[in-house]
Predict the 3D structure of the following.
Amino acid sequence: MQIEHNKSLKAYNTFGIDVIAHHFYQIDSKTQLLEYLKQNNGSPVFVLGGGSNLLLTKPIEATVLQINLKGISVVQEDDQFVIIKVMAGENWHETVQYCVNNNYGGIENLSLIPGNIGAAPIQNIGAYGVELKDVFASCEAVNRITGEIVNFSKEDCQFGYRDSYFKNEGENLFIITSVQLRLSKKDHTIKIDYGAIKQTLDAKQISNPSIKEVSDAVIEIRQSKLPDPAKIGNSGSFFKNPVIENKAFETFHNKFPEAPYYQVDKQHFKVPAGWLIEQAGFKGKRFGEAGVHDKQALVLVNHGNATGTQIWELAQLIQHKIKEEFNINIVPEVTII
Ligand code: EPU
């Protein structure tokens, strides 16, 4: 067992925040994980995947387990569908590319989302009209205390908008070790109505796109709006888009008829937090080393040497301003430690 001590996590979180892990252990196999949990006897662990949905504001005292389980395999298939099993430490985007190259359809709209497979069910990742839950078959997880291996069905996971069982009752109880996805092999359901996908394809005169063409369009759109964490530290959307009840939405809509919105169901409307933050004057603004991205106001950035606390202070300033100007509460999408 190779436990490292006082290790900087700067390279392990896409915000590029330099905090120390008191103890750090890279997990390369399930056996290694089970053995660690058995010896560890229930003392606190901090599970780290790709570190792409995380804002670290202080040193981590619990032992950091960096989940590095690798492998993709086909577990079941017929003419129409395939079920693949992907180990938790596989990179999400590389998995999407593996699927696109094998003509497995369903996750092409989720191209270029940072992070690893193991984190995908926790917040039910989504983009451009598709969410993980649309293709999710099941996942396997290990109970952090007992070491018991548990299989979760889609229902067990209780997926919602950027939400699941693992963010609620199941928080900090399990370590996801693999995820199974059910994907189409032919007659793919192509979803291009959301956002700028159709427009991007039209510009290329593509009217009947393949999953590869949809994936390429999504990559182009994301690259034009979202900062590359390899160049500037960030965690994608920092806040969730607020979901507002009918009555409050009516008041908001009457006051700001130009604001974009989507109806979620009969009682609820979703308003883009990026629009609110831009209207409040934060887009492209810099506050020392912390800032708001100039092309998508929902993304907070680390200009180089920001601490987690500086980014969190900026986030709180934005929350207060949005409450003051629009009477809307926006809450973080990223996990704040
Ligand atoms: N908008 C602005 N100003 C901005 C940003 C957005 O006015 O600075 C407006 C846009 O003009 C548009 C609306 O807000 O009318 C929505 O913007 P966009 O399509 O960029 O999507 P979003 O709602 O801001 C969500 C996800 C993204 C995902 C995109 C595309 C959340 C919290 N975010 O963003 O997910 O890529 O839709 O589907 O739901 C992530 O989770 O890290 C992420 C990037």
